[in-house]
Design brief:
The complex is a heterodimer of chains A (about 110) and B (about 110).
Chain A lengths: L3 E3 L4 E4 L4 E7 L6 E7 L6 E7 L2 E5 L2 E6 L4 E6 L8 E8 L9 E2 L3 E6 L1
Parallel strand pairs in A: 2-11
Antiparallel strand pairs in A: 1-3, 3-8, 4-5, 4-9, 6-7, 7-8, 9-10, 9-11
Chain B lengths: L3 E4 L2 E4 L5 E7 L5 E7 L5 E8 L2 E5 L6 E7 L2 E6 L8 E8 L9 E2 L3 E5 L1
Parallel strand pairs in B: 2-11
Antiparallel strand pairs in B: 1-3, 3-8, 4-5, 4-9, 5-6, 7-8, 9-10, 9-11
Classes of the chains: A mainly beta (about 110), B mainly beta (about 110).
Chain lengths: ~110, ~110
């Protein structure tokens, strides 16, 4: 069993839809939870991070962490064609900038105009 | 300005060959990483160096040998290439003492072993 599980999709939605992306994990020591966006043939870029449980909002993006259920989510409101990418969840014990990041498999998202 | 750069971008080679991938960052970071992304997009850390010192060494065949000549460079040498080594290899860098900063990824090197 992988430490981090993520549905690879693909997920296809119309423009303007609300998108929900999810990951589950098994290691209760994880404290930092991240979402990366990866466009085709590019490197991943950090979209959002949260520390421990709770919600964090940044524009059209909301990240949620439920440590009791070992479940994290990323919501995208008013999705745009430019949001089409692979979304990777990642987790770490010690921080977002050093140490080992453990990634989910990534969910391929396509937003149709 | 390129923050994290990798060369080459594409690498096609025969089984059994030895090849190297180079990575350079101009962000002033002190920690660098190599990740492998397989065909299913699964991204897995291989190595991490902090100030030229190896700090993470995942279960990677010893055919893979990283080398960090200085804080700004981290190279990956692969001996006796196998079909299963085909993947995209990403270099990344970060600043260790900024706990919630990000790891910045390079554009990747797509390795195909024939």
């Amino acid at each position: 069993q992988k430490e981090v599980e993520q549905d690879p999709g693909p997920l296809s939605v119309p423009e303007g839809a609300i998108v929900s992306l999810n990951c589950t994990y098994s290691n209760s020591a994880f404290q930092y939870f991240m979402w990366y966006r990866q466009y085709s043939r590019k490197g991943p870029e950090l979209l959002m991070y949260t520390y421990s449980s709770g919600n964090k909002e940044d524009g059209r993006f909301t990240a949620q962490v439920d440590k009791s259920s070992k479940y994290i989510s990323l919501f995208i409101r008013d999705s745009q064609p430019s949001d089409s990418a692979t979304y990777l969840c990642a987790m770490s014990v010690f921080g977002t900038s050093y140490g080992k990041l453990t990634f989910g498999q990534g969910t391929i998202l396509t937003v149709h105009p | 300005d390129t923050a994290v750069s990798q060369t080459p971008k594409y690498l096609v080679t025969q089984m059994g060959n030895d090849k190297s991938i180079k990575c350079e960052q101009n962000l002033g970071h002190d920690t660098m990483y190599w990740y492998k992304q397989d065909s299913k997009k699964f991204l897995k850390i291989m190595f991490s160096y902090n100030n030229k010192e190896l700090i993470i060494n995942e279960t990677v065949p010893n055919r893979f040998s990283p080398k960090s000549p200085d804080k700004a460079h981290l190279n990956l040498h692969i001996n006796s290439l196998e079909l299963g080594d085909s993947a995209v290899y990403f270099c990344a860098s970060s600043l260790r003492d900024r706990e919630t900063d990000t790891q910045y990824f390079g554009p990747g090197t797509r390795l195909t072993v024939l």
